[in-house]
Amino acid sequence: MKFKEKLQKSLKDKINPQLLDKLPSSYAVIGDIAIFHRIDEQLLEHKRIIGEILIEIDPRVKTVIEQIETRTEFRRPQIRHIAGEKKTTTVHKEFNTMFKIDLDAITFSPGNKGERGHLIKITEENEIICDMFTCVGNLSLPIIVNNPSVTIYGIEINKEAYDFLTENIALNKVEKRYHSILGDNRVVTPKNVATRVIMGFFDIDKKQFENAVEAIKQEGWIHYHYTASRGSRFQIEESVLETSKLMNCKIEEINTRRIKKFSPRLEHMCADIKIRK
Ligand SMILES: C[S@@+](CC[C@H](N)C(=O)[O-])C[C@H]1O[C@@H](n2cnc3c(N)ncnc32)[C@H](O)[C@@H]1O
Predict the structure, then answer these.
(1) Ligand 1 centroid distance, CA of 157 (Å)
(2) What is the DSSP letter of 108?
(3) 34, 54, 124, 137: least buried by Cβ within 10 Å?
(4) Could you name the CATH architecture of 13-87?
(5) Is any atom of ligand 1 closer than 6 Å to the C-beta of 186?
(6) 181 C-alpha to ligand 1 centroid (Å)
(7) Where are the domains of the chain?
(8) Per-residue pLDDT for the chain (277 aa), expressed as one digit of tens each?
(9) Atom number of ligand 1 nearest to Cα 186
(10) For the whole model, what pTM was predicted?
């Protein structure tokens, strides 16, 4: 039985029948915390019982929260406790990798799991990867854990996220190969080292793209994340081509991929850009 049907069954004599259809149909689980995104306002007084039912039916879950996404530079989320243990820190396990995360301070997208798996698959032996927006190692830690020949430079501007990154590097025992850098990637991105650059952020500016190109040693891939309205063409293509021309390097390929639905109107996309210097 689907989650919404289970909720409807448990709540059928407890709430106004007109609200049964407005019950949430899905939730994400990070570690032992379940997350709802935007529960219908009309269910406000029933949130707690919804959370309690979820804890009863899903053995992974100890805490239920509601999260409202933000789009600031640090992307600090807004959290509301709904039911269970009052905590926001958890350890999430995925692809043999442990992520310690405080969901009140840091965003970790369960919807990017496919991308984490994809990056593990496409990374070759002995690659040197620069993750310019690493957060707690969201996209790059699984690569290094699953490929013992890889070296990573991970850059993070937010000290709180950086401290979790440092803890996660130790938790996964990759200290010798994962070099964490605290700072603005417009300033601290290493030059001429990488075979692959990950740019997991939606408002990438020209300087950051230039630094990604500079980070590549001779040839390599830049994974450039962006949002686009459904069906629209890849808008950054022109600026990427212009920058690479100015920087005297060749773009050998640009392939675009859909990663997930980001909002009712926007898709989370990634452009894989192959650079040769
Ligand atoms: C949206 S999170 C994405 C994390 C991960 N890349 C992913 O895609 O799942 C973006 C991270 O980039 C960091 N960030 C934003 N601007 C930055 C900058 N100029 N230099 C370094 N890190 C930055 C933020 O603090 C945040 O932790």
Answers:
(1) 7
(2) -
(3) 124
(4) 2-Layer Sandwich (3.30)
(5) yes
(6) 12
(7) 13-87, 111-276
(8) 788 999 999 988 889 889 999 999 999 999 999 999 878 889 989 999 999 999 999 999 999 999 876 555 555 668 899 999 999 999 999 999 999 999 998 889 999 999 999 999 999 999 999 999 999 999 999 999 999 999 999 999 999 999 999 999 999 999 999 999 999 999 999 999 999 999 999 989 989 999 999 999 999 999 999 998 876 766 666 777 788 888 888 889 989 899 999 888 899 999 999 999 8
(9) 19
(10) 0.92
Block residue for tokens 């894989």: 272
- The tokens for 58 are 């899903």
The residue whose CA is least distant from atom 25 of ligand 1 is 74
> What six digits make up the tokens of 71?
């789009």
Residue that has been written with the tokens 């919404």 in this structure:
4
Encoded tokens for 164: 């979790």
